[in-house]
Amino acid sequence: xxxxxxxxxxxxxxxxxxxxxxxxxxxxxxxxxxxxxxxxxxxxxxxxxxxxxxxxxxxxxxxxxxxxxxxxxxxxxxxxxxxxxxxxxxxxxxxxxxx
Amino acid sequence: xxxxxxxxxxxxxxxxxxxxxxxxxxxxxxxxxxxxxxxxxxxxxxxxxxxxxxxxxxxxxxxxxxxxxxxxxxxxxxxxxxxxxxxxxxxxxxxxxxxxxxxxxxxxxxxxxxxxxxxxxxxxxxxxxxxxxxxxxxxxxxxxxxxxxxxxxxxxxxxxxxxxxxxxxxxxxxxxxxxxxxxxxxxxxxxxxxxxxxxxxxxxxxxxxxxxxxxxxxxxxxxxxxxxxxxxxxxxxxxxxxxxxxxxxxxxxxxxxxxxxxxxxxxxxxxxxxxxxxxxxxxxxxxxxxxxxxxxxxxxxxxxxxxxxxxxxxxxxxxxxxxxxxxxxxxxxxxxxxxxxxxxxxxxxxxxxxxxxxxxxxxxxxxxxxxxxxxxxxxxxxxxxxxxxxxxxxxxxxxxxxxxxxxxxxxxxxxxxxxxxxxxxxxxxxxxxxxxxxxxxxxxxxxxxxxxxxxxxxxxxxxxxxxxxxxxxxx
Lengths: 99, 475
Known about the structure:
The complex is a heterodimer.
Chain A: H1 4-13, H2 20-37, H3 73-80, E1 85-86, E2 89-90
Antiparallel strand pairs in A: 1-2
Chain B: H1 8-17, H2 22-40, E1 43-46, H3 48-63, E2 74-78, H4 105-112, E3 116-121, H5 155-162, E4 168-173, H6 179-185, E5 188-191, E6 211-216, H7 219-229, E7 259-263, H8 264-267, H9 274-289, E8 293-297, H10 305-320, H11 338-349, H12 352-365, H13 371-394, E9 397-401, H14 417-422, H15 428-433, E10 436-445, E11 448-456, H16 461-474
Parallel strand pairs in B: 2-3, 2-4, 7-8, 7-9
Antiparallel strand pairs in B: 1-3, 4-6, 5-6, 5-10, 9-11, 10-11
């Protein structure tokens, strides 16, 4: 069973605000899920390489040229749908405070 | 017009002979949606004006003898695939007002062929779940019994096809999300080989597992849709070039040469409902009576597939869903500082299952746990892939139930996440190994459909279509 403190830490890393009642519920649920997936420790995997890409494709490259595959104005449409934006940029809360 | 027995194949003939127009056909389906959707909640949005204008274009093409396979065919699209100008919610509150600024590659391909798009279908939030109960817009109902789930996450698409609200649909399948709802709703659904269909324009979730695929009433229709949407795409570098075998291979299926593998671990699974198991065995016995060779096989790492899946998928989704931070999309809840603005926005607008998966993924990827969880799961994935590689040396296809049960009741599995996860036991292996899988209806138990899952080797979709079509037409 993971502790409430651990759930709080995970929620913090995941940037999810969790209320006190939810914390208890998540503690039970996440513990059960982690126990379940923890069964994997029984699997014998010495000398086995992990899958990196299932079809085995590697380093797909193309010439570095503008192929205009999608219309560049799409970017502006995306930006205009963000919660706050100005002059074609996404506007975010202040990150660094001036001295 | 009898929509119940109409298929894409038959509609194509009627359209080409001029016995019905694309506008009439689209109007019929829009009418069906109008009368049924209130109860079933299969569609989250419909776009009648655009559908009718596409239908008028289709009629022109047909008149000029320039019709493609799907010209004038009314289809539905899962709401995690971008259709330019339409809302794309992914079943989430965060994307409630998000309008797609471009088309997914699969949509471009459907349009190129002249398809008519009716609207967008319901799903579990960000395509995570097995019942469509995780949608922020209410669950979809199973048209065979409205007290039961349609399966998930492509529950809206499967329901829309089964309830004659469209002729075919697209879904996405990360761990069974096309095959299981197809099974529960009594229709046909394909999870293509990883890399067969472009994911460009699909809302990313488990990127190494996700595939877009078709749902339709018959295997033949499913194959028609697959042929249009599949193929290499410069906008998705994981699509495999020149590797998709044509679905309409002219060679006839020689049933006497067909070798069917029966994975003993699947039939020994504890949660398998015995009536479902018997019905699937009956279908397999039918193939044997037709001359196919049945061979018991072993996929020895089956017991690890569900734990491996529920490490890899949450890990990938925790990274993919980091973009829903209250800055770039949808809604923001202002906090005292930047960090609390992120956390409050995500805490308020992400659903419970989405939060659970993100937290599991965050935990397994965090410092000190990566090797024990994610890296271990990717090693087990290698072993699961090897199980399939070895099996496909001896057999052409593998058959099993699609789901261990028929459609369950609303609320039956929502209290315990692990019970819901167990519904994916027979489907997650195909996503982990990257192989293709088809669900075909093989009967009903107490009025509820049962799905036969046919798994094929990498890029072996044509084999699945031949085998599934042979069953549907001759059984």
